[in-house]
Amino acid sequence: MERFDPMSHTAIQPLAPDGYRLRLPGPTFVPERVLQATAQLVVNHRGPEFRAALARAEAGLQPILGTENRILFYAASGSGMMEAAIVNVAGPGDELLIVTHGQFGERFSTIAEAVGAKADVVAAPWGEDIDVDAVEARLREKDYRAMVVVHNESSTGIVADLARLGALVRDRPTLLVVDSVSGLGGIEMKQDEWGVDILVSASQKALMCPPGLGLASVSAKAWKVIQGGGRLPSFYWDFRRALASAEKGETPFTPAVGLVAGLIEALDMIHAEGLPNVLARHTRLANALRAGGAAIGLTDFGPGKRKSSTVVVFDVPAPLDGAAIVRELYQRHRTVIAGARNRLSGKVIRIGTMGAIDADTIGTDLAHLEDVLRVLGHNLTPGAGVAAARASLS
């Protein structure tokens, strides 16, 4: 009988071809030191080593969130954390006000409908800033259990004004629930100062980790609602259970042990650079990419002024097709960017400007874009995009 040899192995087959460049607005490129951290020996998730790791991760995250709250960790995607936020505050008969300005705001509406929560929607046209006055007018109509909004809408490249939105509900019973999956770590977040009551995020974007680790931060105002009962039924997502475990230095269910190790390394990188420097770098590089795009005929999507620092969304000039640009970038350069899987399909391309990127990253993006656009018949001055980005960075 053949015996199992735990030391035997075959060559690991890579998932990606040589030269592969992950330039999506998430998941993003993971630095080598973070990858190495995730490959450490797996430890007991109820043991002292992992309790210490969770404490380190929490301490590293709190300044990035701008909070003194406990951080709740889940083995989950960003969409899972969005659902968690809804089921922990919505009860039978409670109404939510969902503010949408893109695909992921609409996902909040879809989640609310799926779990049986009642929701009204105030929608901003895609590519425009949220009309805070319109939101305030809706809040005057009734007492909502929560107002729900996406911080950084990666489908449109527009950032919500959380300071103004938070001010609307500070003296109301209404909670402010925010998804900052694609914003946290690349765009300023001041949860406590702005009055964000539930903030959810995930590991795979500006936090520079592989997908699979979700997190939530809950204010004292929100805990009063959550602890009060009368919520939609949940088991895995129950924040009360997660808080009880966090008080013991644990998670309620088996956590993504390796991803927590990677997160600690990524947080060390962020704090070594300095959070203000990290945020400024994201803004500087996003602006350089926009400047380079404008020089080769790619304009920003939509008239909104509150542009994202973690994703750039370009209109695709006629008669080009966004899907063709995405396809040619991969086939010719192994550069992977995003189009759109919604009403903007074929009309925009989206490039991540988050995480471990620098000026060379943006220069390479633009060089590849110039090459592909010329192949597809778009008229441009060779080198103009790269030159404009360099000028922006200078």
From TrEMBL:
Q: Which GO terms describe its biological process?
A: glycine biosynthetic process, by transamination of glyoxylate
**Where would I find the Aminotransferase class V domain in this sequence?**
28-339
Task: Give the matching SUPFAM superfamilies.
Answer: PLP-dependent transferases
Keyword terms of this UniProt record: Pyridoxal phosphate
Sites where the protein binds substrate: 350
Kindly list the GO molecular function terms attached to this UniProt entry. alanine-glyoxylate transaminase activity; L-serine-pyruvate transaminase activity
This protein's cofactor list reads: pyridoxal 5'-phosphate
Please tell me whether the keyword Transmembrane helix is annotated for this protein.
no
Where in the sequence is N6-(pyridoxal phosphate)lysine found? 205
Cited Pfam families: Aminotran_5
Q: Which family does it belong to?
A: Belongs to the class-V pyridoxal-phosphate-dependent aminotransferase family.
Name-wise, this protein is Aminotransferase class V domain-containing protein
